[in-house]
Amino acid sequence: MRTLASVDEECGQRCRRSAVPAMALLCVTVLVAASARGASISDTFTRVSSGESLVVPFTSPSVSTAEAYGGSVEVIVSGTGNSYGARINDAFYGISGVPVDYQDGSLFDTPYYQLNIGWQHGFPLAGCDGEPHNISNFITFIDGTGPTTPPAMPAYDPLLHTYHFVVQVAPRAGPLTFGVSDCVFDDNGGQYTIQVFQLGPLGVPTPTVPPTPPAGSCCIGDCDGNGAVTIEELIRAVDIGLGKLQPEACINLTTCLAPSCREVCIPAMFAISNALSGCTYVAQ
């Protein structure tokens, strides 16, 4: 258990004089990240293979994995290239340099110029396969979003052009094949980089029992004293910082700390840490 003196010293090293709006922005940023955690692939599935990485050039109809896969498969794809003349596309969308009729973040053509998938047993990918092989037809979970019904696509990533999702393939699909959806490949350029992992069955999270707080202590930001800081409680901390709520709306936001360490930005920082990593109790 941390002592009041150690927390007070740490406070002095943090943004004691930061403006409330800046702290509010930080809190909101963390809230968005924290709220997405429950919809992550790693929190919902279990990797049961070490995975493999592929380089898939736009000049080739397909590249196959070395290992066999089936059922739920995790895919991380990045990279861009040109498969529609000189126009550039990533795994799902057209990007800069696209003419007026193909705006950034839009598809060039529904069946073509995007990532396709096939597998050895019963669904081979040979080139010029079109819409049936569009990988969007097999996406059942998008990292940061959660379960989805095919056909589905991740939101456009204009900076990294990286997409992370789960596809559902045949139970005994065998080696998987990936390639850009096109019919003529010798005038293409660029490549995809793809990571593939076999996933286990949908996991059921094990309930976490909050620790019993030591006598005479509290968890900063744990407004209801149940041993955990929730998203709702972090939002309450932001509202207190913005003056929309009185400090009494979350007693444990400030009263856990010494008077010299009760500027709202300081306890809010501890609250964020407690929300993401679990409660650290301090002596009152």
What's the short version?
The chain has 284 residues and is α+β, with helices and mostly antiparallel strands. The protein is built from 5 helices and 11 strands; from the N terminus they run ααββββββββββαααβ. 33% of the residues are buried.
Q: Would you mind describing this structure in some detail?
A:
The structure is a single chain. This protein has 284 residues and is α+β, with helices and mostly antiparallel strands. It folds into 2 domains: 4-39 and 210-283, no CATH class; 52-198, Sandwich (Jelly Rolls). It has helices spanning 4-12, 20-37, 231-241, 251-254, 265-277; strands at 52-57, 63-78, 81-84, 87-89, 115-119, 139-142, 146-147, 163-180, 189-198, 217-219, 281-283. The strands form 2 sheets. Strands 1, 2, 3, 4, 5, 6, 7, 8 and 9 form a 9-stranded antiparallel β-sheet that branches. Strand 6 and strand 7 (146-147) form a beta hairpin. Helix 2 (20-37) packs parallel to helix 5 (265-277). The chain is elongated.
Task: Name a few traits of the molecule.
single chain, 284 residues, alpha+beta, Jelly Rolls, two-stranded antiparallel ribbon, 11 strands, disordered N terminus
What gyration radius follows from the Cα positions, in whole Å?
25 Å
Mean pLDDT, to the nearest integer, reads: 78
Helix percentage: 10-25%
What form results from the Cα inertia axes?
A: elongated
Biggest sheet details: 9 strands, antiparallel
Distance from first to last alpha carbon: 11 Å
Class by SSE composition: alpha+beta
In the CATH hierarchy, what is the class of the largest domain? Mainly Beta
Strand content: 25-35%
CATH topology (level 3) name of the largest domain: Jelly Rolls
CATH architecture of the largest domain: Sandwich
Spans of at least 5 consecutive residues with low confidence:
1-5, 14-20, 22-38, 97-101, 204-209
Number of strands: 11
Number of self-contained structural domains: 2
